[in-house]
Structures are given as structure tokens and as C-alpha cells.
Amino acid sequence: MYLKGKNALVTGSSRGLGKQYAFDLAKAGANVIVHDITEDAASEFNEAASGHEVAKEIRSLGVTSEFFAGDLSDPLQAANVVEKAIERLGTIDILVNNAGGDIGFSTPRPNPNDALDISVEDIRSVVDRNLLTTMYMCKYVGLHMKERKSGKIINVGSIAGHIPVKEGIIYATAKAGISYYTRSLAEQLRPYNVNVNAISPAPTYTGRFLATRTVQKEEGKPRLQKIAHPEDMSGIVMFLCGPSADILTGETIVCWV
User: Fold this and answer.
1) C-alpha distance from residue 160 to each of 10, 115, 173 (Å)
2) Burial letters for 163-175: b for 16+ Cβ neighbours within 10 Å, e otherwise?
3) DSSP letter assigned to residue 140
4) 135: which residues sit within 8 A by CB, 6+ positions away?
């Protein structure tokens, strides 16, 4: 219960990795605001009935939890989610910027998904959902933390942002931008005791991952060459949220496979 009494906002947390982060924060004692783009987004890949149901499950752990929906690529909706979270909990001590994904404008993934043949609409969709949502949330929560002179921000990038790729180039570029933004924002917020770090997860089993990719058999592979599970990535996020990372800022933890 080392986060008892802390208040956390986890974006994109009614499903996938975000849901794991939200539950682990609650198990550590934090109150958690669950967020997703819509209430029923959690059911897209059968990961939960709804965002409200996820918040209800978290409340059963003995902490406060609410679900708020909003399209964070719209700065007005992003600001509204932050305002409602502060109104409900009083403060935001921890922000986990998890919302994102290699998601097309009208398809689960851009197709084509390279640098040249990808549609302009898909370029905007991917950049908006990953880089701009992170910037908007950091702006609004960062102002709140700066005023309080306390807080921890954890941005979620991707291993794709640290290696050359032939597919998902726009997504990888947006995630690479998150690492640079994290380092720079950390310097701006350093005088206010606000830690800003990032994690770049390895490929991880989630509902979306399984629905949009062909997974090869992994029997006999070493542990560090296997696709990760949500709890593997969550352990790193929990470290960044906790007191063991109080002196760490501006860093990106890259999870290689």
C-alpha cells in the first residue's frame, strides 16, 4: 500500500495495458480515475463490459474510482477530463499517459502502414492519438502539478520508437517524439518537484494486440525474447510511480525484445 492516499489518472485504462496499470495502482492503495475514448471502448476486444464496470471493479479493492470518457486528441475534451478528475479526487498525484495505439482513421490499423503510401487521414490519426494526446494531458495536468509542486508523470511510448521499422513508421515516429518530449518536460518541471519519465513497452499481449497481429509460437524461447504480459510492463510503471523513483526524471525505460 505504498501509494495509499495518492490520486492517479490513467488514460486509455478501460482495457489493455492501461487497465493493468489502473488495477496495480489501486492495489498499491491509490485512488484511480479510469479513462477511455468512449464508455464502451473496453468491449471492442472483449476486455471488459464498459469503462464504468472497470471502475466498479477497482472500487471493490477499497479505493475511490470513477470512469470518464473523452477524446484526448481534442484539447477541450482533454482539459475536461482533467478538470473532472480533480473535481472528483481533489488532486492528481500521478498521471499515466497510456492512451494511444497504431490506429487508423477508419480502420483498426492504417493500411497501407508505411511512410509513403499511408493516407493523410491515417497520418493525422496516429500522430493525434499518440503524440498530441500526450502533450495535451501533460500540459493540463502539468500545470496542476506545477502549482502543487508535486507529482509524477509517466508517458507511454513504444519500443518501435527506438528501432528502424518498415511498417508503422508514423506510429514509431510519434512514439519517438514522446521520449524527447518527456526529457524536455522533465527539465521544465524539475524546479517544481514533478518527475516526468517514460516507458517504451515491448510487444505485449492485450486484446488489441491479439486481434490485429499474427502471434508465432513461443515455446522454447528465452524469457527475454518472448512477447511480454501486461503485468511485466506494469511492474516498471509502478516503479516509476513509487518512492523508489523519487530522484529519477527525464528518463525513458526501453523494454527490448
Assistant:
1) 22, 14, 8
2) eebebbbbbbbbb
3) H
4) 181
The predicted model gives 130-149 an average pLDDT of 98
Q: What is the percent of the chain where pLDDT is above 70?
A: 99
Q: Residue 235 is which amino acid?
A: G
User: Is 171 one of the annotated active-site residues of the chain?
Assistant: yes
Grid cell for residue 187: 527539465
pTM (predicted TM-score) = 0.95
Q: Architecture of 7-254 per CATH? A: 3-Layer(aba) Sandwich (3.40)
Q: What is the pLDDT of residues 198-245, one digit of tens each?
A: 999 998 888 777 776 777 888 888 988 888 899 999 999 999 999 999
Q: Would you kindly state where each structural domain of the chain is located, as residue ranges?
A: 7-254
Q: Out of 140, 171, 181, 205, pick the active-site residue.
A: 171
**d(Cα 26, Cα 32) in Å, to the nearest integer?**
6
How far apart CA 138 and CA 147 sit, in angstroms, is 14
Instruction: Kindly state the helix (H) or strand (E) to which residue 35 belongs, with its residue range.
Output: strand 31-36
pLDDT digits 0-9 by tens, 52-104: 999 999 999 999 999 999 999 999 999 999 999 999 999 999 999 999 999 99
Closest C-alpha among 120, 178, 190 to residue 154? 178
β-strands 65-69, 31-36 pairing: parallel
Strand 194-200 with 7-10, pairing: unpaired
- The β-bridge partners of 69 are 36
